[in-house]
Amino acid sequence: MKKKQILIVEDERIEAEDIKMSLQKLGYAVSGTAFSGMGAITKAEKLHPDLVLMDIVLGGKMDGIEAASIINSRLDIPVIYLTAYADKKMLERAKVTEPFGYIIKPYEDRELLSIIEIALYKHKMEKTLRASKASFHNIVEKSVDGIIIVDRDGIVRFVNRTAKLLLGRETN
Question: Which UniProt keywords apply (predicted)?
Fold first, then answer.
């Protein structure tokens, strides 16, 4: 089985090397290391890792939260924050980016392993669910049968193309 590729984003080089050694010891491959927010985006676009471990406080104009937001929206790569900061304001900002985890330094390797494994599994399941929803929507929309979905309150939530034609409604 192919080792999962992880991109490390950490502005402290010694810390980045420690993380790299921990990941390798845990059986992961490190696809690269970035030391800034812009570097993280560039490397993520180039390397397409399976996961990004992102420090929040980075040198440069862009912090890890901003970089994670861009990586998440452009590339659909799960991000786990790995940071020494746990204040409420930082946590609130980080939450908005929908991270797959938040680890506070210092941490144990077993904590890192469990959160990475859960994040990878959750991301895989979310992708499967999105694909399943798209297939379901496609099948229902293209069905030759008229399909109308109504909720418990009697509110129409969905009408497929055929049902609209049968009811004499616009199809756009």
Answer: Phosphoprotein
